[in-house]
Amino acid sequence: xxxxxxxxxxVAFVVFAISCVSPKKYQQAEAKYTQLNGAYLDVQNKYRxxxxxxxASKNQNxxxxxxxxxxxxxxxxxxxxxxxxxxxxxxxxxxxxxxxxDLSVVTGxxxxxxxxSLENIGAKDTYIKDLQSSIARKDSLNMVLVMNLxxxxxxxxxxxxxxxxxxxxxxxxxxxxxxxxxxxxxxTERAKVVLGKVAKVLAAQPNLEFMVEGHTDSIPYxxxxxxxxxxxxVKRATTVVRVLQGQYxxxxxxxxxxxxxxxxxIADNSTAAGRAANRRTRIVILPQxxxxxxxxxxx
Length: 299
Description:
The protein contains seven helices and five strands, in the order ααββααβαβαβα. By secondary structure, the protein is an alpha+beta fold. Helix content is 67%, strand content 11%. A five-stranded mixed β-sheet has the order 1-2-5-3-4. Helix 1 runs antiparallel to helix 2 (108-153), helix 2 runs antiparallel to helix 4 and helix 4 packs across helix 5. It folds into three domains: 1-35; 67-141; 156-299, CATH 3.30.1330.60.
């Protein structure tokens, strides 16, 4: 049998080439897989973070919706009561007027006076509706303000900062562990970042009046020139005010600083958790009473 040496050499060369190239390609494919797998894990982590943010936003929206529903129910109850009183007065006055006419004891001047009184009742009814509309508008603006504040501040826990609306007043409670070092009235760097976010929302509505209140627990305090909790609460309030004014440009004409000491607690001072809750700084968005009085003057 004749041996084809060139063909044998070609086959041997191909086998040799395959044995050299395949491991290299395998290593390249393996490296590519590792890179893609790492990218996939990064995407998974980012997805989990976004999902967490979405859930937090849903919870905040649920809380705000519940607050708004509660306020609407209270306002509806007040409106119903006012309408009932107004309707009763109308019916009672009409009844009296008809009785007087039947008895023929009403002079022309008296009848005209009674007519004007009834017209005044109609004007008061319109006035009540205007007030109700103003209150509803104020509540809506407050809810928008709360949503803007929560959106600006982000996912800081309610133990450190809590924003709420009570009786048409917006309250921002910030814990002292976030704002100050223990026993100090110097604002921390982290707190300045949070105050900057609050200031940005407040600056967007330059006509807002607000008060910064300092609150302490009931443990007696004395340090240098500060002789008690009154001094400490006032000093912490003025420190926050200076940050809002000096670093973030809020107009001092619209700011009030106040110290409450330990006399307005929100929790029991007999426990460590309660005392921690009571040590706080509160920013109160004050009602714009001048606008309310202007509404009264129009009537």
